[in-house]
Design a protein that fits this description.
This protein is mainly α. The protein folds into two domains: about 35 residues, no CATH class; about 110 residues, no CATH class. The protein contains five helices and two strands. A two-stranded antiparallel sheet has the order 1-2. The radius of gyration is 20 Å and the shape is elongated. The chain starts with 12 loop residues before the first helix and ends with a helix.
């Protein structure tokens, strides 16, 4: 199953035009079908975990979606060591220039990999319409983290 977002008008003209059509995705011929209307599994804008909204968040602190640090995305440059620089280091590390994206390693608060928590590269993002699959994946990630601790 593959899901595609179709940028459309309120009337849904473009979506209706492609429903029922087929296309080739080597070596398969696929038919475009309308999906069930579902907002999917929510991603909290406070801790960036999937499965709840900000009003139900139990996290003690805000989390940055870029580095998982205890600050907001807007505060990332001022709080994250990767972007604020280290002028006293040897050699000195300059801060990331204002207006440029953080070029440093990201850390997803969900899968612990090197991408922001909002990235479509995250395994959780790919499961955003399947709550039970997200819960199972969180269990796997937690078990993997516990096993690695000495």
């Amino acid at each position: 199953t593959a899901y595609f977002n179709i940028w459309d008008s309120k009337s849904g003209f473009r979506a209706r035009a492609v429903i029922g059509r087929t296309f080739m995705l080597s070596p398969n011929t696929l038919t475009i079908k309308e999906s069930n209307r579902s907002a999917g599994v929510p991603q909290c804008q406070r801790c960036w975990k999937w499965g709840h909204v900000i009003q139900a968040c139990k996290a003690q602190a805000l989390r940055c979606p870029i580095c998982s640090g205890p600050h907001t995305e807007e505060q990332h440059r001022g709080h994250a060591a990767c972007c604020k620089g280290a002028p006293k280091a040897n050699p000195p590390v300059p801060p990331t220039p204002v207006g440029s994206a953080c070029p440093h390693h990201h850390r997803c608060s969900n899968c612990k990999k090197e991408h922001p928590a909002t990235s479509n590269k995250c395994r959780f993002w790919g499961l955003r319409f399947d709550r039970s699959a997200i819960e199972a994946l969180y269990t796997q990630v937690r078990e993997r983290v516990v096993v690695r601790r000495p």
